[in-house]
Specification:
Structural class: alpha/beta
Strand content: 15-25%
Strand order of the largest sheet: 2-1-3-4-5
Radius of gyration: 16 Å
Shape: globular
Helix content: 40-55%
Order of helices and strands: EHEHHEHEHEH
CATH architecture of one domain: 3-Layer(aba) Sandwich
Length: 151
């Protein structure tokens, strides 16, 4: 029986990097199931207020949403074999950094993907990662190698 790998894709939500990885893995016929956070920005930001009631104070608005989102995020990370964290260039991805640290604390292998110019800013995250790369194609090659054990 072949292992079904579970990979959590954490990171920026403003590009199609997740679908590129998913499509490449599907074309390679790898036994990989992908997990992700809620990638609809307004749903993620506003779920607390829409479900539990509005808050006048932005802190409590965000606090409610963060707690609800954490149910999904932490559960899926804990259930993953590998966590891929991607730091894009549009926004600072603080949640991604937290996901990387959380996965590392759970001894779940982390693959980090970011541009060269982030090397200094992400040095601690890179130091705890099992692999650090710059492109989606490299992430896919790592997954192919890990799953198949062949170059």
């Amino acid at each position: 029986m072949q292992k079904q790998w579970k990979v959590y894709l954490s990171g920026e939500i403003h590009t199609d990097w997740r679908s590129k990885i998913s499509s490449a893995v599907k074309r390679a016929k790898l036994p990989v199931e992908f997990y992700a956070p809620v990638t609809d920005h307004s749903s993620s930001d506003d779920c607390g207020g829409k479900i539990l009631g509005k808050e006048a104070d932005k802190f409590w608005h965000d606090h409610k949403a963060a707690k609800i989102n954490a149910i999904r995020t932490r559960t899926l990370i804990e259930d993953s074999d590998i966590v891929v964290v991607r730091f894009g260039d549009k926004y600072k991805q603080w949640n991604t950094a937290f996901d990387a640290g959380y996965a590392s604390a759970l001894n779940i292998p982390v693959i980090v993907q970011h541009p060269k110019e982030y090397i200094h800013a992400l040095k601690e995250i890179d130091a705890s990662a099992y692999a650090v790369c710059e492109t989606v194609a490299q992430v896919v090659k790592i997954l192919k190698y890990v799953v198949r054990g062949k170059l």
